[in-house]
Amino acid sequence: DEEFDLLAKEIVREMTVKAGQKCTAIRRIMVPQQHLDAFAERLIQRLEKITLGDPDEEGVRMGALASLAQKEDVTAAVNDLLNTSECLFGADGGAAPIGKGTEHGAFFAPRLLRSNDPHADGGAHDIEAFGPVSTLIPYEDDQQAIELAALGKGSLVGSVITADPQVARTLVLGAAPHHGRMVVL
């Protein structure tokens, strides 16, 4: 439906704008269990269209991280996240960046992970890869989504994407105490 596409578009934008290096980028993506596989497929379709490289090059959609040290930090965080998650997209490091001099740059292709255990310590609730990395986290019902949001121990922004006003109300009221602000789409 419309919300499905809206969320996929927004997540890929959040992952790739500034190479995911923003405090408000979407890191944990909570999706109803019954929609997780289809949603992962939709995200992967969009992520496959991202061209990495020198922003001056025609068609490039994502540039480098801030530094080589940042690339090392993001790589280490992804490796830690893989203790509780599996990589659905970007496991091979992604396509080589295009453009002159990019072979020496701090390029890091987007990674989409899936949590194997949404309640596990040391997973996406505890580790932030400050780059183009997001983790899909399945949930069974609205109450579990609220509980999982709380496991993040505070966040600058939480987003709720739904056309159902009752679902929006339930999730906003339940998750708002754990977020600086709530965005409802």
Describe this structure in words.
The structure is a single chain. By secondary structure, the protein is of the alpha/beta class. Helices cover 33% and strands 18% of the residues. It has five helices and six strands; from the N terminus they run H-E-H-H-E-E-E-H-E-H-E. The strands form two sheets. Strands 1-4-3-2 form a four-stranded mixed beta sheet, with helices on both faces. Strand 5 (155-160), helix 5 and strand 6 form a beta-alpha-beta unit.
Give the secondary structure arrangement, pairings included.
Elements lengths: L1 H15 L11 E5 L3 H12 L20 H14 L3 E5 L21 E5 L17 E7 L2 H9 L4 E6 L4 H11 L3 E6 L1
For the sheet with most strands, the description reads: 4 strands, mixed
Net shape: globular
Radius of gyration: 16 Å
| Beta-strand percentage range | 15-25%
Q: What ranges have pLDDT less than 50 throughout 5 or more consecutive residues? A: none
Question: Residue share in helices?
Answer: 25-40%
Neighbour order of strands in the largest sheet: 1-4-3-2
Gap between N and C termini: 13 Å
Structural class: alpha/beta
What do the pLDDT scores average to?
92
What is the string of helix and strand elements? HEHHEEEHEHE
Strand count:
6
| Annotation field: number of helices | 5
Summarize the structure.
By secondary structure, this protein is of the alpha/beta class. The mean pLDDT is 92. It is built from five helices and six strands; from the N terminus they run αβααβββαβαβ.
